[in-house]
């Protein structure tokens, strides 16, 4: 693979995550960025994205993409970076990015998304494009169009190759991308087994999202101030970690302890992503965060390992169904 002086990046989904990470990649001086914006298109086109962060000095910090567009262009790119939520029951990521991928047979597709199984529909549709599966560890929100707030100083990205492809230099594709991330100042981890990291992050997402909703406590701090639901969080996280182990993904022995400690350090009033989506009337990532891994557990006859989580899943589906009927 010949490394161009400037790689052509297309960011699909320039919300809080997409804007922050692509801003840092652009700061490497090694890429030109086209940003696909939807609800924030006018704001980003007019003045870019204001990044409110203490991680890079006082600022002001403004991310100005080289190009701002409303839809995915039929143009050639080196990297197509997907930062949209994985909602396979609402829309097809493969359909959305198809114009750019079809124009870019050698492009790498970077999936910065939560959940299990997010790569499968992309692999099925575009089997010859390298898929760089990535996980974001960062606290960012876009409370108004074109303004992104970064909480704390953590700005980590974990990236690994989903699968090797015969005859394709996937190693170089991974190295160039992660080098650009590093040069942009992101804490960058290159993972040999990215699925292990996906399961590690699922330990938090899979437990705290349903518990925050079903407890009717909504915020992480409220949950951890309640003895019953704190114990439920411990139990559920241990079950998810045990399921990962049973499926062949060794978990760090301190993972659950660290996950709980991280939860306690979150700002008062912090809400898990599904809570925010529920409040805003948006679709939630139930399929990739809960349905897919639980389906895997069922297929491997491992649901006995996750009794608490399995019941939380059933209760959440029932809760959402009843809420939709009531509305």
From TrEMBL:
GO annotations of cellular component type: cytoplasm
Enzyme class: oxidoreductase
Record-linked Pfam families: ApbA, ApbA_C
Ranges for domain Ketopantoate reductase C-terminal: 193-303
InterPro entries xrefs: 6-PGluconate_DH-like_C_sf (IPR008927), 6PGD_dom2 (IPR013328), ApbA (IPR003710), KPA_reductase (IPR013752), KPR-Related (IPR051402), KPR_N (IPR013332), NAD(P)-bd_dom_sf (IPR036291)
Single GO BP term: pantothenate biosynthetic process
GO terms for MF: 2-dehydropantoate 2-reductase activity
EC number(s) given by UniProt: 1.1.1.169
Keyword set, alphabetical order: NADP, Oxidoreductase
Role summary: Catalyzes the NADPH-dependent reduction of ketopantoate into pantoic acid.
Official protein name in the record: 2-dehydropantoate 2-reductase
Lineage summary: Eukaryota, Fungi, Fungi incertae sedis, Mucoromycota, Mortierellomycotina
